Amino acid sequence: MNLPTKMLAVRKEKAAPGVVLKEVPVPKPGKDEVLIKVKAASICGTDISIYDWTPWAEGHITPPVTIGHEVVGEIVEINSDDPQGLAVGDMISSETHIFCGRCYQCRIGNRHICENMQLFGIGRDGGFAEYAVVPVRTSWKNEPSIPLEWMSTQEPLGNAVNVVQTAVVMGKTVIVFGLGPTGLCAVAAAKAYGATKVIGINRGEFRRKLAQKMGADEVYDKLPEKYVDNMDVVIEMSGNADVIQDALRAARIAGTIIFFGIPKKEVTIDLGKYFINKELTAKSVFGRKIWQTWYQVKDLLVNKKVDLSKIITHRYKLAEFEKAMEAMKSGEAGKVLLTP
Ligand SMILES: [Zn+2]
Ligand SMILES: [Zn+2]
């Protein structure tokens, strides 16, 4: 195939807020990597941090870099003697967490929390571009029956599935704090996995409405008094210090709380009140289990147990990135999609 030599990419060029859209050379796949023609990409909360240049971004990014990690694309070139079943023409999604495969965590089955992890579209060039290079080992071959737009939006659903599976929700009441895309997916995943009642909490009304579309039984702007000390499973997706206090209050005695949302600063928690007197079980989740979570996501999507089209609210061309980012930041969006 004749590939172009230049392509459009969203670049973080300087250690400062903002990004630039510019022409760069089409990358070449290194050893055990594939080149994909990007078909769709979606903007993540992480991309907002990168755009705004938060302390987190400063600690994780060395410009210049092409950003974007929630990506689906068609393989156009493979540079590997062992492509692990991948072929030119396959539609693959990228797993953001590029594991080393050799460290202690990788060797005991925890590749998603690899000690030497590289991040696609963060620590190395990503997929807000016309082409992208993805390692063979973090390429997920999609089931062709899944709609293309959903293929790029599997990361938030994967996070949500990992959270809900970690919590164990079958036959339990569940409350989700923070209804961004991952929170919305957590609502849908909790319903799909047999929670008896799912409640969503979010300040903005737009996302409360989306949560209802995703199957929430009840939604509120803040924790109602009747649900204090009442919920079997609490899912904290907001990362907001005040909301975290409400999440702890919502859990019933001996309930389970899962922390996923990353607070921007240190949060104080009353250990005696919640973890000793109330005997809560607290767990945290980081990303998706590789590849266990992806198989679970595939099952939900192929068998239409979760409908991601309900949370895809905006679509833009790659060249309209600034507009897409504006929509994403408005709080009046679910998932924002980019196409080349
Ligand atoms: Zn992401
Ligand atoms: Zn590793």
Write the SSE topology:
Elements: E1 6-12, E2 20-25, E3 33-42, H1 45-52, H2 55-60, E4 65-66, E5 70-79, E6 91-94, E7 97-98, H3 104-107, E8 118-119, E9 131-135, E10 139-141, H4 148-151, H5 154-167, E11 173-177, H6 181-192, E12 197-201, H7 205-213, E13 218-220, E14 231-236, H8 241-250, E15 251-259, H9 271-276, E16 281-284, H10 292-302, E17 312-317, H11 321-329, E18 335-339
Parallel strand pairs: 11-12, 11-14, 12-13, 14-15, 15-16, 17-18
Antiparallel strand pairs: 1-2, 1-4, 3-5, 3-9, 3-18, 5-6, 6-10, 7-8
Helix pairs in contact: 5-6, 5-10
Structural class: alpha/beta
Helix segment tally? 11
Briefly note the CATH topology name of the largest domain: Quinone Oxidoreductase, Chain A, domain 1
Rg over alpha carbons: 20 Å
Order of helices and strands: EEEHHEEEEHEEEHHEHEHEEHEHEHEHE
The number of domains: 2
List segments where confidence is low: pLDDT < 50 over at least 5 consecutive residues. none
CATH class group of the largest domain: Alpha Beta
- What oligomeric arrangement do these chains adopt? single chain
Mean pLDDT over the residues = 97
Number of strands: 18
Looking at the overall shape, the CATH architecture of the largest domain is Alpha-Beta Complex
Structure description:
The protein is an alpha/beta fold and 340 residues long. It has two domains: 6-153 and 311-339, Quinone Oxidoreductase, Chain A, domain 1; 159-284, NAD(P)-binding Rossmann-like Domain (Rossmann fold), CATH 3.40.50.720. The chain is built from eleven helices and 18 strands. The strands form four sheets. Strands 3, 5, 6, 9, 10, 17 and 18 form a seven-stranded mixed β-sheet that branches. A six-stranded parallel β-sheet has the order 13-12-11-14-15-16, with helices on both faces. Helix 5 (154-167) crosses helix 10 (292-302). The mean pLDDT is 97. Bound molecules: zinc ion (ZN) (2 copies). One zinc ion (ZN) binds next to helix 3.
